[in-house]
C-alpha cells in the first residue's frame, strides 16, 4: 500500500494530506465502491474533460470552473469515490505527474472575526495556487458546506458576517483559480447540499447525487465484505452461499454502504465465541445484526 506523500504537520494550514497520483491505494477505493457503472463512467469522464477540454477552450465558450460536487447521505461512499476518482483521472493521463490535496475545511473556521475569511483566502490564493502552478492538481474539498455556507440562510448568531465573507472569498477564489489554472480540478463532497451556497453550486460543472445502494448493490457490498474477511477467516465465505443470504441482502436495503460493512462487524461481535473466533459466525448472527442496526437507526434529521 502506498500512503500519502507528505505528513500532515508539514502541510499548509487547511491542507490535510497530499498524495502523488496515480496511487494504487486510492485505486482500491474506487473499485471498492459499488455503484451503477454508468454513473461511475460519467463521473470519470467529466473529470477527464476538465483536463482535455478546459485548457484548450475559451471560458467565454464553455464557462467551466473545474468543480465536481458529490452529494448524498452519510456513508454512501462520496469521499472514497472522490479519492478513487483522483487516481483514475491520473491513470488516464499517465504521462504527467498529478497530485491530490485534501482540504480539511473545519481547520479554517475561527471564532474571531475576519480570521475564517483570511484563512480561506490564504488556502486558495496561496497554498492551492502554488500547488496548481507546479503541475496538474486535484483538490478534495470534503464537507464543502462548511466552506461555502448558504448565505441566504445565515442567522444573526455566531459571526454571520465572517461566515458570509468566507463564502464570498471561496467564490472569488474559485473564479480566479478557474481562469488561471485549467489543469486544476476540485472534487467537493457534502451530506447537506441544501446548506451549500447556491452560487457555489452554480459554479459546479457536475453535481452528482450518490444514492443509497439498491438491492443488487447491497448484495455486492455484503459479499465483498464477507469475502474480504474470508481471506483471514476462511469459514466466513460459506455465509454468501447460505440459503438465507438473500434474506440478509433484502434486510440491508435502506442502509448505506458504511452501515452494511458495520453490520458485518456487529455480527462478528454477536457472542464471545464469534468474537474470539470469527470463523464461527452464522447467517443468523448476520441477519440479527442487520435487523438490529435498522431498528436502532436514529431518524435522519436535517441540519439547519
Ligand atoms: N456504495 C458503496 N459500496 C461499497 N462500500 C461503500 C459504499 N458506500 C460506502 N461504502 C463504505 O462505507 C465507508 C464510508 O465511505 P465514505 O467515507 O466514502 O462515505 P461518505 O459518503 O464520504 O460518508 P460521509 O458523508 O459520512 O463523509 C467506506 O468504508 C466505504 O467503502
Ligand atoms: Mg465523506
Lateral strand order in the biggest sheet: 1-3-4-5-2-6
CATH superfamily of the largest domain: P-loop containing nucleotide triphosphate hydrolases
**CATH architectural designation of the largest domain:** 3-Layer(aba) Sandwich
Structural class computed from helices and strand pairing: alpha/beta
Helix content: 40-55%
Q: How many domains make up the coordinates?
A: 2
Apparent shape: globular
Mean pLDDT across all residues, rounded? 91
Query: What radius of gyration results from the CA coordinates?
Result: 21 Å
What is the element string, with H for helices and E for strands?
EHHEHEHEHEHEHHHHH
CATH third-tier fold name of the largest domain? Rossmann fold
Query: Could you list the spans in which at least 5 consecutive residues all have pLDDT below 50?
Result: none
Q: Report the oligomer.
A: single chain
User: Which ions, cofactors or small ligands are bound in this entry?
Assistant: adenosine-5'-triphosphate, magnesium ion
* DSSP strand tally: 6
Highest CATH level, the class of the largest domain: Alpha Beta
Keywords: ATP-binding, Nucleotide-binding
Pfam family, one: AAA
GO molecular function, one term: ATP binding
Protein name: ATP-binding protein
